[in-house]
Each structure stands twice: as structure tokens, then as C-alpha cells.
Amino acid sequence: MANHLHRHPAISGIDGLTWHEALSKESHFFSGGLGRHSGASSAAIYRSYFPTVLQRWWVERVKRAGKWLCFDACPVIACLDFTADRLAAISPNAKLIFMMRDPVQGAFSAEIMMRNLGVPLSWSWTEDVAAGDTRFAESPDDVATLPPGAALPEDLNQRLYFSPYGLLRCGHYADRIAPFLRHFKRENMMFIDFADFTSNTEGVVREVLQFVGADPSLMPFKALPPGMQGERRGRQMHPSCKRKLRLHFAEPNQRLYALLGRDFGWGSDVVRSAYVTAGGTAALALPGSQKGKDEAVGHQQQGGKEVSIAAVAGGTKSVPLAAMV
User: Fold this and answer.
1) Which residues cross the membrane (predicted)?
2) How many Cα atoms occupy the beta-carbon half-sphere of 104 within 13 Å?
């Protein structure tokens, strides 16, 4: 998506590291890219990641391409709960675009990317599941309520990039979105299924441009090579590990479906929701809710077609993954 956005004359990305695709679009400002004491809540410092105001003059006055927009396509923004507060303080009207994929695939893709970057991991999803497997052990989360301006934990990068549970935690989408729903307007959030992006890239890109206020007609669509294609180099997730991860994400996925009002079908071969027939109200109760009252998930038969439904107290809500500021 970042590569497509870069092609629009009114949109700029960060001035990142050009030697790797991910680092050319991700600031890692909120996760300590400038050091744990760098003040990952300073608007001025964050602004330094982006092109100068001279670029705005060029875009708006010379090229007349519309309002100049900048984006930071860093997924870590949504993986750390404290970033919602800090991002809102810096750019309260930011448009947030969250692209989600099957968390099992996401966990394996993250491992492959880090290994290809030379990160020395002591574990792998390619290995068989063993008794007492520490890859699935939860670790304490003591950064969720980190005060604005506070120094980042010294071992934050260790938790994010070296710990398998750090990757799993990022895939608990319903939990990760909660802080953003508290700090940003729902109309400033857009939620995309990665599968939709890969199957209908042009349509999704145009929807994104319209959402952020960029004129789609100024950027004729061009098919681009898939990002980081072939990075797996024949490596495959171990079948037992895949089954374990499917079970691990089953309940978090159901909570996400309830929040979004949409069943993505991730791991449907492992876990099935309760069924709701026409006129019925049977539901699968979710943790922290009153069965059939606060949150309910089910499937309804309509015209012979199974349709995913969800009811959430207070209306539908959704999930984050990248920030457009």
C-alpha cells in the first residue's frame, strides 16, 4: 500500500532508510527509533521524519495537486497501546488506516522478515510444538499505560522483535484497537482486510485515497510487484505449530469479528461460531460480556447464504494498523 501511496503527487512518506522496503516507509519513532529517552511524544521531533514545508509549497502551489499529505506506515504504532495517546497529542485529526491479515500468517511473515534482516531469533515457527513450549507463554504488559513523555522500557525492542509472544500480542487485534477508539474519531479510521487488498488492489487503493482526501484521478493506477515477494525462500510453518496458533487466535479473532461486524473466516476450519437462524438470537458469549447482551457473534442463514453477523453494545467498532498524518 505504501508504494501505491508514494505514487500520488500530493502524498509523501517519511524520509526513511532506502535499503529495505519496510524501513523506507516506517519511522519507528514511537518505539524508540531515536532512543528510549528521545521523547517519543514530541511533535517537533516526529515532524523531522517527514519532508520539509518546501514540499508542501511544491505540491499545493506549483503542482496544484491538492492538500499535501504525509504518512507513516509503521505497524508498531498499533502494537504498543501507549502510542494512541501520544499520537493523538501530536496529530489528533490524523487519518488512521488499519490493514489486517490472518494473524497466523502475520506471525510467520514477521519471523521471516526479521530473519532476512539478520535479527538473531532463538525460536522459530518452523519447529514442532513441544510440551511446555515457551513460544506461546504470555509475558506481562507493563507499557500499556506508559505516561506521555516517559522513557521507553530498556527492553522494549527485545519484547517487540525477539519475543514470540510479542508477535502474538500484535495479532490480538481487538485488544490493540481499544486505545485508538478512545483517542480518535471513528470516522477518521479505515479498516482493510489484507486479502481484499491483494485481490482488488486498485479498488482498495482508490478507497484509501478518497478516505484521506487525495484525488484518485491524479494517480492512474499501476500494478506494482508484490512487496518482499519470495522472502520465505522455501521455509514453511510447522503443521503442529500452525494448529497451535489457530487455537491461540481463535478467541481474539471472534472478539475482532464482533467489533467489526464482519467474520474474516480466519481459522474457520478450527473454530466455528454459534449459528443464528432467521428470527433467532442464539449467540457465542465473549469474555467480559453478558451473553447475548453486550457482545454476540453468530451466523444467520439468509436466502441460503451464510452471513456473518455481530452485535456490539454502543455500535460497531474497528481495528488499527497504520497511521496517515
Assistant:
1) none
2) 23
